[in-house]
Amino acid sequence: MFRIDDTVKVKATGIVGTITDISNAGGSRVYVIESDPEEDEDVDFIGMSAVIYCTEDEIEKI
pTM of the entire structure? Predict the structure, then answer.
């Protein structure tokens, strides 16, 4: 189980970020992750954070 402010990595992309919100809407848990701009070398907008929505099985705690 993950908590708000946990640092996680998205398994599919390797993007590292922080959980900023957890939603249980529709009966399934979705984690809102804001990426660390310093970690996002593949993002076109350098210095900007990405917001990613993931399920528990798509992320891992680091």
Answer: 0.82
